[in-house]
Amino acid sequence: MTVAAAKTSTEAKIMALSGTKQSECSCDNCKRLCHTPCIGTPEDIEKLINAGYGDRLAPSLWCVGMLNGLTRTPIKMIMPIREESGWCTFRLPDGLCELHEKGLKPLEGKLASCRPKPKGWTLQRDFTWLIAKEWLPYQELFNQKWI
To answer: Which domain covers residue 77, as residue numbers?
Structure first.
């Protein structure tokens, strides 16, 4: 399976499980979400690296699952850098995402919005959790050389 095919099937799976659709909203509330860089699937991050954005990504420990009782340990992943300004490295001065028009926005950023949670929402069906879980098979790689 190609990376593009894996990405499509992973995105479709996460959207179906979470009951969430991609958002095109660019209201001020949605723009403020960029205080926390969005997480992507491993395929999203691979695509960013291949497009030359590797210097704007960093290994990270995702601890939200621990705070919500979904995991016992942080999930190691690679994600966009949060700049000293307090914003995601890909946030433009107008508040929009530099990656949006290029089709490179990480999945959490594609799905995040100011809309209410979908009907039947639970922590286990939250799209952020479902994206983070995609990193679980790669945890040992981080132990070898990155973190």
So the answer is: 3-145
Query: Which tens digits make up the pLDDT trace of 31-51?
Result: 999 999 999 999 999 999 999
**Residue 16: both structure tokens together:** 């179906």
Model-level pTM? 0.89
DSSP β-bridge partners for residue 60: 77
Going by DSSP bridges, is the β-strand pair 75-80/57-62 parallel, antiparallel, or unpaired? antiparallel
What's the pLDDT band for 145 if we cut at 50, 70, 90? low
Task: Summarize pLDDT for 107-126 with one digit per residue, the tens.
Answer: 999 999 998 888 888 899 99
Work out how many domains the chain is built from and give that number: 1
Contact (Cβ atoms closer than 8 angstroms) between residue 121 and residue 17: no
**136 touches 65 (CB < 8 A):** no
Cβ pair 112, 33 in contact under 8 A:
yes
